[in-house]
Amino acid sequence: MRKISVLGIVLALACTSIAADARSLENVRERGVLGVCAHPNALPFSSKTGDLAGFQVELARAIADKLGVTLQPDWVVMTFQIRAADCDIMMDTIDDKEAQGETNLKLSRPYYRTGAALVVAENSPITSLAALDAHTKVGVLVGSMAAMTLGERHVGISIFGFEDDALDAVANHEVDAAMVTPTMAGYYNLRHPDHKLRVLALDETDPGLAWNVSVGMVRPDPALRAAIDDAIAALLADGTVARIYARYGVVLLPPR
């Protein structure tokens, strides 16, 4: 699979302003489809081909099922495609109320917590961010909040373009740790059972390193918004969301 900057994709999907007419729950049910914008080659998030659809697509499909309609993925790669897409929702939208005015998205209830987690080798003595100093080397993504935060704390960093590369560097003992999403770390461990890495808890003391995610809805009417909230609540309650994430090696972290 061609490597991609998955976090960049998610942020682009979450932060792109989409011009679209308001879509009602009645309209969605009349059409019989719920459209989701997703990248065609971004496992564990989404994939157009292969046996795994990605947890974003699987969760979106479960929501569509609750609404009594079929999921229709709109496969997008570039920002201009997102603007032109006819999707109703975008998964894993960062739950930032202040950004709603810029994105034109309405947010569902949050269903997962993520952020930038410290990942180390199984035998590493590092147990928290407090253990890092100028003598440690941490792999971070270029331009990431983790890079900025560690730089401000005068922690040694090594810049990578992809989370997988940073995790490979930890596994190969080229760096002491990496700061990546728990999602990608879990998926990495699933694919490397003989070289599993240890994922430390999110640092909740820094708001830039932990956040909730929600479904981003493109100008929904109140009924559609409520129906999606109800669907998420039901899927959380019956364990569907946790089971979907678990298929990709990801432990579901409850939102805060």
From TrEMBL:
SMART domains: PBPb (SM00062). This is Transporter substrate-binding domain-containing protein. It comes from Acidicaldus sp. Residues 1-19 form the signal peptide. Residues 33-252 form the Solute-binding protein family 3/N-terminal domain. Keywords: Signal. SUPFAM superfamilies: Periplasmic binding protein-like II. The keyword Signal applies. The keyword RNA-binding does not apply.
